[in-house]
Amino acid sequence: MPDLSVSIVNTGSRELLLACLESLGGADAEVVVLDNASEDGSAAAVRERFPHVRLIGQEFRAGFAANHNTVIRETSGRYVYVLNEDTASHDWGFERLVAYLDANPRVAALGPRLVYPDGRRQDSAWRFPTPLASALGLVTLGKVGVKQSHGETPRAVDWVMGAALLLRRDALEEVGLFDEEFFLYSEEVDLQFRLRRAGWEVHYFPGVTVVHYESQFSAGIPERRINEMWRSRHRYWRKHHGEAGARLAAISTGAQYAMRAVLAPLVRRDPAIAARMRLHARDAWRVTGPGLRELADEWNGRVGAASRR
């Protein structure tokens, strides 16, 4: 049984995926790529350039939770490193990460420091978005007391981003895998909330740095992306805080975005930012438009119909 299995899902970001695998190099880990029915030659490129990498070629498109669950079930490492294809590192530090988890047997999830390509720190560890935290965040527009990815030593946090998330398999076997009702967004928050509720810990580990390029696979459809994000957040709030708690959290968070929409033209003078803030404020009340799940469903429907002809 290997110490570490790496789960990467490719969403059609061929060059970023290849750069990620190149940076992994000869890492002492079981590396598995699930190709989410991409159309950019990613699968063929992986087979040609990285024959040692196991490739799962999927002929339909599914969400983050379902895809990574497929890989987790197909691997055997004591620890599973969930990675975005838009990540890379000069030093993945797998030995240090495994050693830290071995030395801290109640830590079920570990997140490295994330940085942007220019080296700026990316906020990557946060407090849980509880109704109370959302209400308090209204006072400071969510700028105070929410971010936890700071400091230079490992520390306990509420949750870390799923772009680079190391998980203990034993803990997953206890609380379950990602909830596949989440198509994209909030699934890692939900999992880490369940882990914390079961008595496990989540830690931020700045001793390893990962570059997060933030793939632009949905950049051209910002409204669908925002819709999907809010649909997932509403589901998370209802699941863990009930209808009343979900409504309180949504109103408080939506008010934050409404205030940002008003202030954006004064601060940045960028109408696009104000427009995005208005979309967030609208969706905080109720999501009515299609998201990324529908985009995948539409693609699956077209491909399925074509294959039946």
What does this protein look like?
The radius of gyration is 19 Å and the shape is globular. The protein is built from ten helices and twelve strands. Strand 6 and strand 7 form a beta hairpin. It has 309 residues and is of the alpha/beta class. The strands form two sheets. Strands 1, 2, 3, 4, 5, 6, 7, 9, 11 and 12 form a ten-stranded mixed beta sheet that branches. The protein has a two-stranded antiparallel sheet with strand order 8-10.
Seen as an oligomer or otherwise, the chain set is single chain
Strand % is 15-25%
Ends: how far apart? Answer: 44 Å
Radius of gyration, in angstroms, nearest whole number: 19 Å
Helical fraction equals 40-55%
Largest sheet: 10 strands, mixed
The shape, in one word, is globular
Q: Averaging pLDDT over every residue, what do you get?
A: 92
Structural class: alpha/beta
Low-confidence blocks of residues? none
Count of individual helical segments: 10
* H/E series: EHEHEHEEHEEEHEEEHHEHHH
The number of strands is 12
List keywords for this structure.
ten-stranded mixed beta sheet, 12 strands, 47% helix
Would you summarize the structure shown here?
With 309 residues, the chain is an alpha/beta fold. The protein has helices at 14-24, 42-49, 64-74, 94-103, 131-140, 169-175, 187-197, 222-267, 271-285, 292-308, and strands at residues 4-10, 30-36, 54-58, 79-84, 87-88, 107-115, 121-122, 125-126, 155-157, 159-160, 164-168, 201-212.
